[in-house]
Amino acid sequence: MASSFGKGGAVGGLILFGTTTSLFAKIVYELKSVGSDGTEKYFHKPWAMTTLMFVGMTFCLPLAYLQNAMKKKSGDDIEEPLLQDSPLPAGEVKEPRNELRETLFLSVPAIFDLIATILMNIGLLWVTASVYQMMRGAEMLFAAFFAITFLNRSLNKYHLMGLSCCVVGIALVGSASLLSGEGSATVVVSQEQMLAGMALIIISQAVQAAQLTFEDFFMADMNVAPMKIVGYEGLYGSAICLMIMAPLCYFVTGNEGEGIHEDMIDTLTMVKNNGVLMAILLIDMVALLMYNISGMMVTFQIGAVFRTVLETMRTLFVWLVDLALFYGGAGLGESWTPYSFVQAAGFIVLVCGTIVYNKGDEEEYNKEVKEAMAVMATEAPQEGSTAPSIQGTGQQPTPGVPIGAVAAPTAPITMAGSFRAMQTINAVGSYHRVGSLPHGSMPASSVAGSVRRGHIVTHGAGTDSDEE
């Protein structure tokens, strides 16, 4: 009962807090406050929102150390590795950790995340929250491109069908947004600005896919808890925003609220002069932290495939709540136009593309497991023994194979590298090592790369985190 309650709470938290962070990211742009010049204006502060996201991620750091302290107290002084590996063979000693190096190395994905987030936040100025969520399906396209280009992967027919649906879906959503002419409920947005906003969001997904590729390729063997990864990336991102980007954006010339020039003194003044704005920003930061925690719980307790479904629901909730805000008299959100039917069709196509793409991952996983079992059987044969099996926790034993009879190969398994290093694209546009986790669960590195602000929305159907 307690386990079911915990899973239910994680599922509810993922949808609730994920929807909250996506909605609030747009709502704050539609609130007014008096700035340092004494005039009332909209809170168009994408750099402030980017900084807020990183500050929210930073709160994962004390939670990670608290979790580690509790493990030590209980006698389990082992951190979760970035990717789950098989137990070490008897007599083999694990290499000592270089915690300082690991910590400093996390600054690189933090820079990727900073670039992607500011591009998304600027793009969100000129598109609605629902379009913002759906356009992020482009990450799947770039993830596939990087997998082919840098990881020497090949795509099967399901992958290609899923990517085709992704292209069609994004085209439908983008066309609907341009035809409706609605990018904000409070200000007039030109078609040029809408195009620029959607282009920035798409470019941000290329950066996000590059970040996840970097994390999985260079950081796969780092023995760092996923919560600590998010926390340190938040710490580095906050430091860069506050110490470098805030002064730089203050002195650079440009129009306020377009992502180039941003007056940090004016930002603080506007927050101080509007209690509602301040409350929303604080709630948003807490919601981001809770979204991170809920997302990790869902991924590890239920699985990444189920999380993909939830992220699809999250996008739908964002759209529904946005409509309710508009027609509820709040003066926020977005309206339903004749072109919203086109957007709905695009959303459905994106969801179908994600499902089909995930089917391709499943096919690749099954194929590679069979190949790995065949290689293991030929490399470590034992007279009178049955073929080794690759089993994940909770999986049914392979017929004819005794439980626990998993042979440890004496040499690396060579399958386009090694079986341990084989990587594939999952439904949310990141990569994971095939066979490393049971039931298709997402590894820690993918989680770390996805628990920002919705960066794991189904990315076709709405990647934090997410929402990233």
UniProtKB/TrEMBL annotation:
Domain of life: Eukaryota
Subcellular location as annotated: Membrane
Any Gene Ontology CC annotation: Golgi membrane
A Pfam family: Nuc_sug_transp
Topological relation to the membrane, as annotated: Multi-pass membrane protein
InterPro entries from the UniProt entry: EmrE-like, Nuc_sug_transpt
MF terms (GO), sorted A to Z: pyrimidine nucleotide-sugar transmembrane transporter activity
Keywords of the record: Membrane, Transmembrane, Transmembrane helix
Transmembrane stretches, start-end: 49-66, 104-127, 133-151, 158-179, 194-214, 235-253, 273-294, 315-333, 339-357
Stated family: Belongs to the nucleotide-sugar transporter family. CMP-Sialate:CMP antiporter (TC 2.A.7.12) subfamily.
Name under which the protein is recorded: EamA domain-containing protein
Taxonomic placement: Eukaryota, Viridiplantae, Chlorophyta, core chlorophytes, Chlorophyceae
